[in-house]
């Protein structure tokens, strides 16, 4: 959970707002299921966002509030085409000594999303939960290069690795998507999703290869949180399904893509905050027409 | 029609072979229909390739052979990742004064592909043909920037613009695929296909938006001719269909993607020369599984 200061070089705008992977993912999960949030904030984390999460049914007892502490803060600037961004400042603050503690009420959760933190901390979360149906994990180049051994130890313990295309190339050492998928599956996770931004996402699992296009949005306003929205909606949708089979996970990828597309159309978490369950589902329905050969 | 000298910086290899848009497109068309080729060569164009085209049923009376002339020659070098290439030399040779003359036997052709030449020459081809069912045209940045007015005059006369993503941004002035599609349709063509290389292709027409992923090949050996294979197979497939409806054109995009993927797996035209009709169709069938949400 974070407070971001985001500048947009294209428009000259600058904003500060509540953000962070857990925030975006929880808002997206809430379209389908009850998010249980684990994280840490200072007493500066915007109350509006805490209220918005509560209003959507999020269970927040896993969110530590450190009195007198300051929330993790990121300050960045997007290039005019929004395709890249530079980090101007990162203050870990209360996040620096964060070690996730899973409340006992959360330990039997069926779906677990391990956010993009140190792989040893991700493993420590798994040590605290009881037999979930599916464990998904995100990671990033920082851990791929800096903590490769710990990341490799985590991968066989997870059911779904969700990773950006750039990161997937770094982790697999492969250039082409088909080989990337094979190589990453061989590293241990049961399923792998490679996200290609505006070009969609690939899912690799025992049933083969699936591709979902990105929803062709009219324009992107702010890419922040797209990946977290994707993961949050995907797991929320799965939690609401009777069976976790080949079709369910494929449709969950589409649902994740729909949520991500709604996220990027507005600033910060605004897209997710304003959308309804039906907005996500209606957008996901358009995917069927987008790939129909009839 | 061209003789290419192609260097691969990644492997240090260097080859010379028969190539050119018309050659690749005709080989790909021949999987489904009879290609009628219009072009110009010198007497140095490899006889093997002419024989290969004839063997596949291509009608070659539109190919002018200039005695003592030299064929268009391109010499280029691909970067190690094959994502970019530099032109080391281009010799127009007999192509310099080429003005396409459509043989009378070709004038009633139902499908016409206007290769990537000066838009005024593309228009002159259209003046020579009788009411085709569909006219497709390729173009490139060189004409978009240098001959924009003539290109804009051509667009309302064609049924299908086939264009790379970079070029589509240049021509439309838009960044996002959805707006690119709308803007390009507004410029006159009945349908627009935007090719995104390894990320697939979008089709925009009166029926809406269609997306086909690229076939996830294990590795790319030589990207030359991928776009021409795409267009050639697409039109060949359409020519073999009873009705040119929404589904036919969508399936034709998939067939084009299948042919392009087979082209890039081997050097030069080798992939197309070694493949059969069934290889293309079987690969196209895999697309159904790739996007199935069941």
Brief summary of the model shown:
The first copy, chain A, has helices at 21-29, 47-55, 119-128, 141-146, 148-154, 165-172, 177-186, 226-239, 246-264, 270-274, 277-291, and strands at residues 2-8, 13-19, 36-42, 59-66, 72-78, 85-91, 111-114, 134-138, 160-164, 191-195, 201-205, 208-212.
Describe this structure in words.
The structure is a homodimer of 294-residue chains. Chain A has one domain (2-291): UDP-N-acetylmuramoyl-L-alanine:D-glutamate ligase (3-Layer(aba) Sandwich), CATH 3.40.1190. The first copy, chain A, is 38% helix and 24% strand. Chain A has 294 residues and is α/β, with parallel strands linked by helices. In chain A, helix 3 runs parallel beside helix 5. At the A-B interface, helix 7, strand 12, helix 9 and helix 11 of A face helix 7, strand 12, helix 9 and helix 11 of B.
Number of helices of chain A: 11
The H/E string of chain A reads EEHEHEEEEHEHHEHHEEEHHHH
SSE-based structural type of chain A: alpha/beta
| General form of chain A | globular
What share of residues of chain A is helical?
A: 25-40%
Summed up, the domain count of chain A is 1
* Rg measurement of chain A, Å: 18 Å
On the 0 to 100 scale, the average pLDDT of chain A is 97
Major sheet of chain A: 6 strands, mixed
CATH superfamily of chain A: Ribokinase
Q: What order do the strands of the largest sheet of chain A run in, or round the barrel if closed?
A: 7-8-9-10-11-12
Structure summary, number of beta strands of chain A:
12
